[in-house]
Design brief:
- With 224 residues, the protein is α/β, with parallel strands linked by helices.
- Helices cover 31% and strands 20% of the residues.
- The chain has eight helices and eight strands; from the N terminus they run E-H-E-H-E-H-E-H-E-E-H-H-H-E-E-H.
- It has helices at residues 13-22, 57-65, 79-83, 96-109, 136-140, 150-153, 157-175, 207-210; strands at residues 2-7, 27-32, 68-70, 88-91, 113-119, 122-128, 184-189, 194-199.
- An eight-stranded mixed sheet has the order 3-2-1-4-5-6-7-8, with helices on both faces.
- Strand 4 (88-91), helix 4 and strand 5 form a beta-alpha-beta unit.
- The longest helix has 19 residues, at 157-175.
- It is globular and about 50 Å long.
- 45% of the residues are buried.
- Bound molecules: zinc ion (ZN).
- Residues 134-135, 137-138, 203, 206, 208-209 line the site of zinc ion.
């Protein structure tokens, strides 16, 4: 059975986990999040209810969708242990340091990464196949210093649902060995009602891609 590792059980992680469960995908879902449910989360973090306030998100989410919980922060000290055995990573974390660490660790270990983000009316999704497609560092090189956080800029709950479900779909596509959508930066502008896929160009000087272990789908399975 394939293993999907979900980083972040927040605005994107909740709908992504729910979609994987509703799809009855034949996979092991491991949910990583260090935080507890807060009342302000409830509007867009759809796996949690009033009675979950104060409980660990990873544990509540895992119980709701039939996954495994890891109450942990994904950082340089925990990455190796958390990534062991992962066949695909879904990154729904909300800070740039963690996103770039996930990018670098996924590439180094040859694990496909589905990265999602939502801010204001903008949603973003990219599937990175190590050694085959561009990566976050091809795009930005380093975490941008001044980008506003979700807390500062706000985010639409419904947009989180859209991006989270798309992350689940992209992860299942990777596990089926379908790579058509990989390497494109999918951008939704919900205010204009538009979606644009842009090719994420590989930077020949990218430090993370230079260290990438090539992604070889082991054996293709039909999870769905
Ligand atoms: Zn790169």
């Amino acid at each position: 059975m394939k293993t999907a590792l979900l980083l972040g059980a927040g605005g994107l992680g909740c709908p992504a986990a729910l979609a994987l469960a509703e799809a009855k995908a034949d996979l092991r879902l491991v949910i990583v999040d260090p935080d507890r449910v807060e009342r302000s989360n409830l509007a867009r973090q759809i796996l949690y209810a009033d009675e979950d306030v104060g409980a660990f998100k990873a544990e509540v989410a895992a119980r709701r969708v039939g996954g495994e919980a890891r109450v942990a922060r994904f950082d340089a000290t925990t990455a190796a242990g958390l990534l062991r055995g992962a066949d695909v990573i879904l990154d729904g974390t909300d800070d740039f340091a963690t996103r770039f660490l996930a990018n670098d660790e996924a590439l180094r270990r040859g694990i496909p990464l589905v990265h999602g983000a939502a801010l204001g009316w903008q949603g973003l999704l990219v599937t990175i196949l190590p050694g085959q497609t561009g990566c976050l560092r091809c795009l930005f090189e380093a975490p941008p210093g001044q980008a506003p956080t979700c807390a500062e800029a706000g985010v639409l709950a419904a947009l989180c649902g859209l991006v989270g479900v798309a992350m689940a779909g992209a992860a299942l596509a990777v596990l089926r060995g379908e790579s058509d959508g990989a390497g494109f930066l999918h951008r939704w502008d919900a205010l204009r009602g538009t979606h644009r896929p842009l090719l994420l160009k590989r930077d020949p000087n990218c430090a993370a891609c230079a260290l990438a272990a090539s992604y070889e789908p082991k054996e293709l399975t039909s999870c769905l």
